[in-house]
Amino acid sequence: MKTQIGVMGSAGGELSPEQVARAYELGRRIAERDCVVVTGACPGLPDSAAHGAHDAGGWVLGVSPAHSREEHVEVYASPLEPYDGMVFSGSGLMGREVHNIHSSDFVIFVGGRTGTLGEFAIAYDEGKLIGILRHSGGLSDDFRDIAQRAGKDTGAHIVEDDDPATLVDRCLKIYEEAAQPFLTSPALAQPDTPTARGSSA
What we know:
The protein is α/β, with parallel strands linked by helices.
């Protein structure tokens, strides 16, 4: 089974060409590493990552908040292409976030607004491996500080990088070197830096 990597980020707002391009490269690199991109099947930066993966010949899975294709398009104004598969969760936008995280072996954040913050909180609370594309706009640059200020040891491991391809490679190295699934691997709960347990810049 292929590794499933969630890409969560800004679905709307003003997005610069640079933000869109970096999200696209994130998706492309995930496909080049023979992994599946998982998104909330929304517009914006996750959609850019989905297209990057698709254009590189990769697989893309969408987790929709809707009950059906029709509701996905007409109510949530979200795309069906370029997805290879779509889960219609029927859970709404907030409920869909939980399905997004559970469907991902690990999660990479790019940009982000309040919905992305919710996804980060779920991933962090559940001890996931988390990648952050630095300087991608939105809230994701603050996620490491938010985790530190929360003062809650969940075993989550945060990796940050400015380069989309390098970030994917670093996260995969950590994930693949685990002797067992991430949530039960004590090796991955060890800190990389003295400043934040389970985080690496």
